[in-house]
Amino acid sequence: xxxxxxxxxxxxxxxxxxxxxxxxxxxxxxxxxxxxxxxxxxxxxxxxxxxxxxxxxxxxxxxxxxxxxxxxxxxxxxxxxxxxxxxxxxxxxxxxxxxxxxxxxxxxxxxxxxxxxxxxxxxxxxxxxxxxxxxxxxxxxxxxxxxxxxxxxxxxxxx
Length: 159
Ligand SMILES: [Zn+2]
Description:
mainly alpha
């Protein structure tokens, strides 16, 4: 008994092998694997399922599900609770992601933008013209006049 003969016997009937083929299949890993594969590829016998089994299957599955008359109050409340929970989890993850990501983005850009007006008033992308920038654009004598109209010490300190 060699593998080819065993495989031929398996192809004929994998469930009812001659005794010598059965002995070879038990000893030979390749042939026993081929037998299992052949069995898996075979069509399921029609007699396994009783008549009408697949016709009644959807109805029986539906009958095993939670009954619909009670689906008025509590299931909907449960669904709302589940939805709220999912949303909370989702938003939690979303905010967690934002919280983890924010320092990378804003620490590099926002603090400089907040400090720049005092440090570098002539930067072109600042918000409008603040008082110091307007004062610097004036000719020196007019700037002095403006400064005289103000409290002199805060103006000079800020410069
Ligand atoms: Zn073999």
